[in-house]
């Protein structure tokens, strides 16, 4: 647990990230994360002389990675060394939260407030970005973690599991832990109701959804009231502890003049445009077809604010089930990769950056490939065709695609969209840029 006030080390305790490939090859013995990617890269000649793993403390807020550990300075230097040593621009692969973290880093690297590399640093040093399951627009999973220390993983515990977990590590303790991690703020949804829907509908509502099941009602209560994403974020902003996230990040949905001078906005692709790197290509790779948490039913009744909303909720009401609304144990699911909803995985990739020049002023090429979740039931990690948020790092086709990009054989990479993400994107209603 980090210091809840500063987001840095608690008194007399220091914990630092590992360095090198072992920083993220395995989470636990036998539970790989980047290991499969590293192994495949090694098979085509890569080693630690031409491949670098950015190990950082993922608990920290983005600005604190530099403030405490000089993390971005080290990353910028490493990119420049690789570029100089190989004579080629680098390819950067980022997974999950690493997507918005990379956007923040690009702005930091070029800004006089950070690395002072100038407006052409990204274009001069980076050939391509591979975003794997990137949380470009956040995930509702972070909302429930902040509200009550819960998420679908805990809500779906059986009675015995739930009893044991809550007795050894209660919801209140989990909530305090999550609030101490500045990184949780970077996962909170951005764009408000324009991206996540209002009390009438949401861009990613399933066909025929009525008001009882619109995902735009992010949090519902037993008395029939609800809160949209805007109202839920407003509730968090006025929470004495969670309000720290709003001093570190910005969650708006409109391009903001002067955003490059405000580091709170650097990881939000709706508020800060891509760098002027006309020769860069962004590859968006992510899984689809797996139930992903999107909205929640809470048992306590709010007292003020929002649509009857107010004080912090007690717990997800695990007794709520509705097959017609894809609700199980108080959690409403939508399409995604099991952790990140499709609207966050894909909106920027198929519409936000390609079709909104104000968000992509240099016309950076953006290519999307979706991987249908087709797990092998006898493999605990889903097998070679999984689309799960983490397990996709072992998806055979994704590994081949990463190699094609990294080795300069991008002609062998074939984009593919197998979901309705383009239809969802057309329903997103971004507000006009400030000043327009």
Low-confidence stretches: 301-313
Shape: globular
The string of secondary-structure elements, in order, is EEHHHEHHEHHHHHHEEHHEEEEHEHH
Q: Average pLDDT value? A: 90
Radius of gyration: 21 Å
Could you explain the architecture of this structure?
- The chain is α/β, with parallel strands linked by helices and 436 residues long.
- It has helices at residues 35-43, 62-69, 71-86, 98-110, 121-125, 141-148, 152-155, 159-168, 171-180, 183-187, 192-196, 229-237, 244-248, 342-355, 396-406, 421-427; strands at 26-28, 31-32, 90-95, 126-132, 219-221, 226-227, 281-288, 290-298, 327-328, 331-336, 365-372.
- Strands 6-5-8-10-9 form a 5-stranded mixed beta sheet. Strands 3-4-7-11 form a 4-stranded parallel beta sheet, with helices on both faces. A two-stranded antiparallel sheet has the order 1-2.
- α1 packs across α15, α6 packs across α9 and α14 (342-355) packs across α16.
- The longest helix is centred in the first third of the chain and has 16 residues, at 71-86.
- It is globular and about 65 Å long.
């Amino acid at each position: 647990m980090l210091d809840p006030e500063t987001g840095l080390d608690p008194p007399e305790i220091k914990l630092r990230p590992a360095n090198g490939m072992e920083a993220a090859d395995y989470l636990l013995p036998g539970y790989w994360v980047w290991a499969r990617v590293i192994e495949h890269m090694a098979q085509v000649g890569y080693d630690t002389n031409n491949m670098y793993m950015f190990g950082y403390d993922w608990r920290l807020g983005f600005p604190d990675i530099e403030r405490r550990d000089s993390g971005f300075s080290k990353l910028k230097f490493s990119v420049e060394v690789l570029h100089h040593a190989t004579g080629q621009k680098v390819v950067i692969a980022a997974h999950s939260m690493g997507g918005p973290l990379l956007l923040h880093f690009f702005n930091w690297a070029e800004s006089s407030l950070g690395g002072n590399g100038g407006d052409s640093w990204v274009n001069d040093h980076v050939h391509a970005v591979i975003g794997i399951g990137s949380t470009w627009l956040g995930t509702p999973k972070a909302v429930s973690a902040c509200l009550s220390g819960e998420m679908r993983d805990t809500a779906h515990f059986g009675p015995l599991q739930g009893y044991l977990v809550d007795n050894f590590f209660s919801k209140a303790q989990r909530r305090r832990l999550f609030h101490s991690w500045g990184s949780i703020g970077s996962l909170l949804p951005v764009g408000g109701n324009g991206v996540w829907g209002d009390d009438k509908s949401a861009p990613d509502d399933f066909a025929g959804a009525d008001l009882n099941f619109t995902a735009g009602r992010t949090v519902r209560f037993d008395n029939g009231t609800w809160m949209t994403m805007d109202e839920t974020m407003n509730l968090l902003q006025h929470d004495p502890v969670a309000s720290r996230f709003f001093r570190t990040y910005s969650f708006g949905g409109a391009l903001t003049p002067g955003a490059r001078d405000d580091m709170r906005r650097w990881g939000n692709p709706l508020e800060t445009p891509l760098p002027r790197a006309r020769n860069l290509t962004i590859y968006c790779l992510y899984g689809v077809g797996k139930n992903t948490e999107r909205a929640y039913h809470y048992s306590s009744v709010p007292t003020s604010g929002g649509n009857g909303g107010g004080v912090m909720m007690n717990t997800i009401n695990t007794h709520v089930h509705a097959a017609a609304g894809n609700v199980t144990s108080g959690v409403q699911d939508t399409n995604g990769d099991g952790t990140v909803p499709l609207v966050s995985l894909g909106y920027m990739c198929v519409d936000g950056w390609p079709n909104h020049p104000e968000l992509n002023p240099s016309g950076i090429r953006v290519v999307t490939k979706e991987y249908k979740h087709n797990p092998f039931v006898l493999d605990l990690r889903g097998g070679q065709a999984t689309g799960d948020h983490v397990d996709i790092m072992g998806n055979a086709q994704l590994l081949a695609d990463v190699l094609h990009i990294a080795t300069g054989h991008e002609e062998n990479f074939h984009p593919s969209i197998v979901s309705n993400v383009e239809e969802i994107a057309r329903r997103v209603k971004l507000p006009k840029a400030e000043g327009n």
